[in-house]
Structures are given as structure tokens and as C-alpha cells.
Amino acid sequence: MITFRMNGLEVQAEEGSTILDTAKFYGLAIPTLCHHEGLTEFGGCRLCVVEIGEGLRSKLVSSCTYPVEPGLVVRTDSARVWKSRRMMIELMLAMAPGSKVLQDLASKYGVTKVRFAPRDGQCVLCGLCTRICAEQMDAQAIGFQQRGHKRKISTPFDMRSEVCRLCGACMYVCPACQLRCQGPRAETALCNACLAMAPSCLEHYDDLQCWMYDAGRCGTCVQDKKS
Amino acid sequence: MKQYRTHLLVCAGTGCVSCGSFKIKEALEKEIKAKGLDREVQVVATGCNGFCERGPIVMVQPDGIFYQLLKIEDVPHLVEEHLLKGRPVKKLMYVPPAEKQPVPKMKDIEFFKHQRLIVLRNRGRIDPEKIEEYIAFDGYEAMGKALSGMTPAEIVDEITFAGLRGRGGAGFPTGKKWAICAAEKATPKYLICNGDEGDPGAFMDRSVLEADPHAVLEGMVIGAKAIGASKGFVYIRHEYPLALKRMEIAIGQARDNGLLGEDILGTGFDFDLEIVQGAGAFVSGEETALIASVEGRIAMPRQRPPYPAHKGLWGKPTVINNVETWATVPNIIRRGSDWFQGLGTDTSKGTKIFSLVGKIANTGLVEVPMGITLREIVYGVGGGIPDKRDFKAIQIGGPSGGCLPAKLLDLPVDYESLTAAGAMMGSGGMIVMDDKTCMVDVAKYFLNFLQDESCGKCVSCREGTQRMYEIVKGITEGKGKESDLDLLEEVANVCKDASMCALGQTAGNPILTTLRYFRHEYEAHILDKRCPAGVCKALIRYVVLAEKCTGCQSCKKACPNDCIKGTLKDIHLIDQIRCIKCGACKEACKFEAIEEQREEAIQII
């Protein structure tokens, strides 16, 4: 067992566990997005950052990837941590305004404005889909492409992947897909989204890539019809 | 071995090669043969001489004469005069700016005078493709000493006492890193040489690999003995073909001579090296990303700890050091840690190589002792700013370093001082800027680089650099708002705070230092819609000064967009709506009759 301090309390954790594991065990809430039990840690969303160390040498680290070590001093909710988390939520909201997960986080952490021009994106590049595909479905049908501002998730060479079984696991874990299932204008009483159905996969592939029995009926891929 | 009375050392670093130094070498050889001197004079291709501004360069030894800016046409004259008649050719020598008399000898030239060569001791002196020449200058002596006369612990102690710190930028004590790795029980252990130098305007590692590949190799064998590694990798980026070729030759020669492979020097120690080519990602220079790249995965950094010294390549203890660090090691072992201790400052020992580029008279590669002031580098070694312009800023430490203003010119160059000033040592790129440089534009340039080169893992870095770029781009286009500066600062600080690897953690520096030292320029762009340096296209316009225009039509011919009107001997006029602000007209005008106007350009149109 490793003993260290978290938010002023002495805590114990097994060797090899992360700060996030320990915080969860002790009932401390740390927001996460790209973390998923059963998948390897990624550390990309930076929502779970915590402050470690003291004084000038203190720094922020992602708690999901940081292994516990003896003598560690952790603060899960310092001003610095909150400032960073808020900025992450703001940055991600500007990427995928349609994500309910992100909208909820914004309310919880008091993000009341997005100061960046919103992008018409749906993906926050958290990598959950690529990991579940590779690690749980043993398929590796999708993965990251490019780097920096060109980064995206796609199939190899943007072609229909032969190893994809249309299992839908990627959509199941996606934090940005969830709200879209209710249509793009869920806040209005009359959505009519299904009337404007245009499965986005048809823009890339010849065949519909839907795991649902009834193609596109869930509304996941509903887009505004370009009229 | 054949004896020659004179050696012509032709610089064959990438800079001089691209200026045609191989052709000069061929011409020299041909000419020397034609004159029947080929038994007396030898032509040698050496590694980068450092004074890249003046390439192609030829040194004549033992006279010590330095010839520069050579052309093929100069070769017959040079051979005839200097080699046949013994009269050095004055017109091919270096003339310092503002002076008329040429300086014949290399050691008297300002650029070389202030340098202290340790890592680059063999530059411009030996043929990097011949192991014999390296050995002749004490090469592999340190390796012999380390392998036959020292225990691994003694080697680590020697490096620790010397106070050598990593030359890749962060400055972690090398001895400490080695000690941690040496204490690990898991085997096999690995060594990696990080030659993935990606900073714009930096070419230290390239030049070391090109000029003295055996020094890097020797350092790695010594390191291998110290930590007990049996295999090493030299990671060189694909864009350095000459460095790759010379390293390959060096490894082959070392193997043939029993200096690499099994049972090195008969001491029973086995170690071998392999070259890995990088595929062009800047982030591969980060050690965990580099390990991923060597393993064949995407170059994406991971969380440390575990540090590579505990769990690195394929989960085994690994020491990663920069090219320059490895090349320093043999010098320390050969001359002792006390000698190395005596160089530099209290916390930063030894020398550091910088590539001096930008608006500076002597562009090139310099090796100076730690603790030297920026002023000595810029005005002493660098020869000041050309065209009598004023120094404005110096950008240190690569794209994520910082821009330091003139008032910090007396800052000593060491790890701590630079970090405190908001810049960083980085791998050692120095970009000098004069008063015609717009600092907002500079920040935009570096952010554009970073948003391209961020691996894209962390939201803070990927999105942060993109958003900072967007905002700064808006400011340069005259669309800035007052609130932008606070937002920029906030994003930059969070990017620095919350990102996983050193790229993200320093990506805010271009913004933070320019805001800290040049805030007035941002304010001029935002509040007055004015670019003080006259760089940002949206905020300037070109106009013809009626009193100076002679109607010569040269601007009209130069304009790529045909937007200058005027007949011969009439005052010309620039069509502001169609003008693309390329500045070609200003360059073409011989009468200084075209000026960029910086005030309220937007409102006028």
C-alpha cells in the first residue's frame, strides 16, 4: 500500500493505481471524459487534471494517467485546477456544441460563455471510440489520423474498413454523439429532424454504415439538409 | 600515410553543400591535378565550419587562411596564386562589415574569436567520413579509458561531477539520469540518441552529426558501459540525409575497427547501434513520443512517470540524450570532470552550441561557454544587425521558446536565467529580429507552427494552439478586440499548465513573452489598427510619394497584379482595392518613392 496526501487527508492506495482510482475510492469527484473503465488510459481531455506538489514546484497532471507514489501531495479542486477544467470545457464545447455530456459539464463547472467561434464539429477527439474498437472489439477499424489541427478519426485511407463489424461500440462510448440522438434542435418542441435525414456516412462510403436495424432512424447522423 | 604540404578543407555541411561546395571541391581537385600539385595538396571535405553565412568556405592549412563565398570561377585563380605562387588571395577573404581590410586568418575573425570549441572541436578540421582522422585527434581515447580503466559507477560519477546537463533543452542532469537507469535491474537496457531536431532555424544537432559523427558514437558507447546497455538507437530525422549518411558510415567504420559490436577493444563489452529515421513530426523530439516512434507507433507523448530511465523502450530502462550531450561525454571522460567544471556558470557547466539566424550579420553555428551574455553573442560573435538597423528581440529555444527584448541583452545565457525571463534554453536556436519585425506576426508564425505540430492528444494543446492562432491572426488582420489580450493570456497559461508534454507546456511561451515585453505592439494593432513595424498586410497600404516618383515604370513592371497605373515620366498610382500588398513595387523602386503607410489604413479604403 502507498500512503500519500489528498486534499489534506492521508490516503492509501495500492501500488500501480492512479490518482483518479484513489479519488474515486475515497468518494472525491473528478470529472472525466476520455476515461472509461475497461479501456487503457489516454489522458487527452485534461478534465481530470489535479494539482500535485507544493509551492513553486507544484504542477497539474492528469489524474487518470498519474500513478500514485509515496509522499505525493494532491489537490483535486484547487483554483488552478478549476481554471484549467473550465477552459477545457470551453474549448471542447466550441468544438462540439451539440454534446450533452459537455453541456452538462459546463453547467456543473460554471462555464457560462464560450469565447471561441463554435465549430460545426461533433468530435472532441477523446479517442474513446478508437480504444474500444481496438481493445474491446479487437477490430482496430478506426484510428487517429494526422496531428495538430488536422487530427481526425477515421478508417484507414478513409475507406470502408474491412474489419468493421458495425458493432456500434464506438457510438456507444462517444460523449458527443449522445445528444444528437435527439435531433439537432432538441430544445424546440417540433424537431422534424427525421424529415431532414441525410446519413453522413453516405458522403464517405457507398453503403450505409449503420448498426441500427432501421437505417438512420435514431437520428445520430441527422444533418441539416443542405437546401 | 601520404604526406601533403597543404590541406584544403572544404566545408561540406548542409549549408555549404547547398551553396555548391561539392562542386567547388571537384573544381579544386581538377585544377590542382592540372597544375600537377596533386601530390602536394590534398582536398578534404569537412563537417560544418559554422560560418554558414559565408559559404562555400575553404580553409587552407597549415596557413590558417580562410576563404569564403567561393565560386567555381575563383578556383583557378585561387590555385594559381595561393598554392603555386604562395600568395594568399585577398579578394576571397573575409572583410568585416564597416571595415575595408580583409582578415586572412580564421582565428582572427570576430565570429570565431569568441567561441570555445569542445563539442565542435573537430568541425572544419577532419573528414567526418574517415575514422582515422577522428582517431588522429584523440578520438576513441575516452572510450578506451572508460572501457578498460573505469567501472560503470566511476563513469557515472565523472559525468555527475562534471555537472553536465541535458542539451536537448530541459537541462536535466545527465549523470543523475544515468545513475537512475544504472540502478534499474531489468534488462536489456537501451540507449537512444535524440537527433530529431525540428525547431525552425535550428541546426545544431545536424551539424554535430555531420561534422563529427564518431564523437556521438563514442559518447554512446561510454554511456552504454555506464548504464549496462547492450543496444542503442540513433534517431535522426529523415530531413537530414547527409547526417544520416555520415552516421551510417561512422557506424560501419567503428564496427570494422572493433569499436562497436561484440567484445569492443577486447574488453568483453558488447554494444551495437542502429539508426532509426524519423518521419517528420516535430513532437518526436519529446522523449516518450520518440520511444513510441522507435517502437513503430504514432509519435504521441505519454504521461511520465514512469520515466524512460525506469521504463522506456519496450518497457525497459532507457537513457535518452540529445546529440550534443552525447558528443560532450567523450570530452569529459578524456579531459576529466574538473576541467569541465571550470567552464560555464555555477549551475550550467560547459559550452552550448547555438544556431544564430535571422537578422544578424554572421549567420551560423556557434559554440560558446555557458554564462556568456546575449549581447556578446549578438554583437560579438554575431557581428550585430546588418543594414545598420536596430536590435528588437531575440527568440530563444525554438518555437515554444520566448522573445526577449533589447533590455535583456545583458542576460547571461544559462538554463535558469532564460527560464526566469520566460524563454528557455531549448535545443539552442537563436533567431535575431530587427526593428522591421512585427512581434505579433512573429507570435502568429510560431503558433501556426505549433498548431501544425501538436500531436493532438491533449485538448489544452491541440485546441489551445489553434485558438491562440485564430485570435492572433485576427489581431494581425485588424479584427482584434480589447478582450482578446486577456483571453490569449488565459489560454496560454492553461495550455502551459494542463498539457501533458513539454510541447504543450511551452506552447504558450511565444504569446506570454511577446505579451510581457511587447504588449504595446498588440495594443497598437487592436486599438489603433496599426502595425508599428509595417508588416501586417491588412494594416498597411502602399502609396506612391508624388515628390519622389520619376515615372520610371519599374514598379509597374514589378507588380504581379497589374494594379499600378501611370505612363512613362508620369507620377504613378497604386490601385488600393486591387493591391495585394506584396511589397514588390517598394523593392523595385530605386528612388524610395513607395512607402508603406501604417496609420488608419483600413478607414481610408
Structural category of chain A: alpha+beta
pLDDT averaged over residues of chain A: 82
How would you sum up the major sheet of chain A?
A: 5 strands, mixed
Secondary structure: helix percent of chain A: 10-25%
Uncertain runs of chain B are 601-605
CATH topology of the largest domain in chain B: Rossmann fold
CATH architecture of one domain in chain A: Roll
Total strands of chain A: 7
Write out the strand line-up for the largest beta sheet of chain A, numbering strands in chain order: 2-1-5-3-4
SSE class of chain B = alpha/beta
What features would you highlight for this structure?
A: alpha+beta; Ubiquitin-like (UB roll); 6 helices; 22% helix; 12% strand; B: 605 residues; alpha/beta; Rossmann fold; 5 domains; 5-stranded mixed sheet; 24 helices; 18 strands; 15% strand
Can you describe this structure?
The complex is a heterodimer of chains A (227) and B (605). Chain A is an alpha+beta fold. Among the domains of chain A are: 2-79, Ubiquitin-like (UB roll); 181-227, no CATH class. Helix content of chain A is 22%, strand content 12%. Chain A has six helices and seven strands. In chain A, the strands form two sheets. In chain A, strands 2-1-5-3-4 form a five-stranded mixed β-sheet, sandwiched between helices. A two-stranded antiparallel ribbon of chain A has the order 6-7. In chain A, strand 3 and strand 4 form a beta hairpin. In chain A, helix 2 (79-95) packs antiparallel against helix 3. The longest helix of chain A is centred in the middle third of the chain and has 17 residues, at 79-95. Chain A is globular, with a radius of gyration of 20 Å. The relative contact order of chain A is 0.11. Chain B folds into five domains: 6-113, Glutaredoxin (3-Layer(aba) Sandwich), CATH 3.40.30.10; 131-341, NADH-ubiquinone oxidoreductase 51kDa subunit (Rossmann fold), CATH 3.40.50.11540; 351-434, Ubiquitin-like (UB roll); 439-527, NADH-ubiquinone oxidoreductase 51kDa subunit, iron-sulphur binding domain (de novo design (two linked rop proteins), Up-down Bundle); 540-604, Alpha-Beta Plaits, CATH 3.30.70.20. Helices cover 39% and strands 15% of the residues of chain B. Chain B contains 24 helices and 18 strands. In chain B, the strands form five sheets. In chain B, strands 7-8-6-5-9 form a five-stranded mixed β-sheet, sandwiched between helices. Chains A and B meet through strand 4 and helix 2 of A and helix 17, helix 18 and helix 19 of B.
